[in-house]
Amino acid sequence: MLDDLALFVAIVEAGSLNAAAAKEGLPTATVTRRLQKLEASLGYRLLHRSARRTQVTAEGAQYYEQCRPLVQALRQATMRLDAALGAVEGTIRVLAPVNFASEILAPAWGSFLEKYPLVQLELELSNEVQDLVGRGADLAIRIGTLADSTLTQRKLGSTRLVLAAAPAYLARHGTPAGAQELEGHATIATLPLREWRLHDPHSGALCVVHPAPRIRVNEVRLAVMMAEQGLGIVYAPELQCHASLQAGRLVRLLPEWMSKRRHVYAVWPQQRYLPARVRALLEHLADYTARHPLLQS
After folding, report:
1. Rounded-to-integer distance, Cα 68 and Cα 47, Å
2. CA–CA separation, 253 and 141 (whole Å)
């Protein structure tokens, strides 16, 4: 009804149905039909009309005087909202996994804030999958299979899981030759990876290992550090193990036993439009991850 009310105001101000139709970019027949619908809902005639000329009735004049300030106020509010949605400024609240946000994405947060000085970032880091809407967040970074179909998603990249252990541990306990031998070793489990899913390099068959870990921890970086100390074999994202592998503090095990890549997504509540500040962050993260060698196949 608000659209029809605004159209009635436009007709009165334009002086005729044809002029109002031209101004609003509508067929005259549509303008006439919507005006008739408004009159029917109100129960009285607003205009004496023809294609060339309109004359406001007494009821129409009174209705116009009451409605015009409302329409103007609505237009002004819409213009202010459009300006706000189009400005890259304000607060963006993001949920993200601890290690991924604090290590892999750390340069991206900084470069984004340098590019958009009027933006404030609120980063809430947790390895648990949090309720995006309930936490009042604009965006979330998630890794792995997405179960919530009510969210819109954009893939940012993917990463593989690797098995690794310290040279000192392997010197004491030997190097496993296959996935089946892992259950005889001390292991360090990183939640939520309660099972290790590996594919046999010869047959392609899936081998699911259920470790009885000596250590179970929900913070990947700590698990990697414990593996570096020789406390056991760790199964963790390559993103968090890469530096340790490159430096020789860890040795990659069973590299031919490939695990399925885990995808990285940006997700947000389903809605038609995102504020410009959130769209800008989304594009910035997508550009950053597209250039990160460990996030691309």
Report:
1. 16
2. 29
Residues 248 and 167 in one domain: yes
Q: Which of 60, 86, 112 is the last residue of a domain?
A: 86
Q: Are residues 50 and 102 in the same domain?
A: no
Integer Cα distance of 141 and 155 in angstroms: 10
pTM (predicted TM-score): 0.66
| Strand 161-165 with 251-253, pairing | antiparallel
Nearest alpha carbon to residue 54 among 24, 9, 23 = 9
The CA angle 163-167-169, to the nearest 5 degrees, is 80
Give per-residue pLDDT as tens, 204-241. Answer: 888 888 888 888 888 888 999 999 999 999 998 888 89
Question: What is the CATH number for 82?
Answer: 1.10.10.10
CATH, residue 116: 3.40.190.10
Cis peptide before 269 (omega within 30 of 0): no
Range of the domain at 232: 161-253
**What is the overall mean pLDDT for the chain?**
86
